């Protein structure tokens, strides 16, 4: 009986995982499906000589973006804390939420975003950007 419950639990988890990681085929045409949002994830890898004060200044400026760019619906920022050791030096993660591609497309060339990129760029060794449609 215990083995059957374990197998059943594993199957349920596998089915849920497949659903959670499947693509958003309805969003391929560039339009948000009802109830979905566009996530814009930015991972930052700072140069070794960047100070804690410089990073704090960057964080302050990042958190101010939603006050300047109305298309940016939600912003979340955090420090990398994984114990797996696979972050490849990326230590700061920013997740932004847009209602649709049009909002993101306004954000990207927005003067306040461009100014932040120009300010932060020299502090970075690398940056990784990924966009995806939520489920």
UniProtKB/TrEMBL annotation:
<feature type="signal peptide">
    <location>
        <begin position="1"/>
        <end position="22"/>
    </location>
</feature>
<dbReference type="InterPro" id="IPR044662">
    <property type="entry name" value="HS1/DABB1-like"/>
</dbReference>
<dbReference type="Pfam" id="PF07876">
    <property type="entry name" value="Dabb"/>
</dbReference>
<comment type="subunit">
    <text>Homodimer.</text>
</comment>
<feature type="domain" description="Stress-response A/B barrel">
    <location>
        <begin position="38"/>
        <end position="132"/>
    </location>
</feature>
<dbReference type="InterPro" id="IPR011008">
    <property type="entry name" value="Dimeric_a/b-barrel"/>
</dbReference>
<dbReference type="InterPro" id="IPR013097">
    <property type="entry name" value="Dabb"/>
</dbReference>
<protein>
    <submittedName>
        <fullName>Dabb family protein</fullName>
    </submittedName>
</protein>
<keyword id="KW-0732">Signal</keyword>
């Amino acid at each position: 009986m215990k083995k059957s419950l374990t197998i059943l639990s594993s199957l349920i988890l596998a089915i849920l995982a497949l659903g959670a990681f499947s693509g958003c085929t309805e969003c391929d045409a560039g339009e948000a499906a009802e109830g979905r949002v566009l996530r814009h994830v930015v991972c930052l890898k700072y140069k070794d000589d960047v100070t804690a004060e410089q990073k704090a200044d960057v964080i302050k400026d990042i958190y101010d973006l939603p006050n300047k760019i109305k298309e940016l619906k939600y912003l979340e920022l955090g420090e990398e804390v994984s114990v797996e050791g696979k972050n490849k030096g990326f230590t700061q993660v920013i997740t932004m939420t847009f209602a649709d591609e049009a909002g993101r497309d306004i954000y990207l060339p927005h003067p306040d975003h461009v100014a932040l990129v120009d300010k932060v760029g020299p502090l970075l060794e690398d940056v990784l950007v990924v966009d995806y449609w939520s489920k």
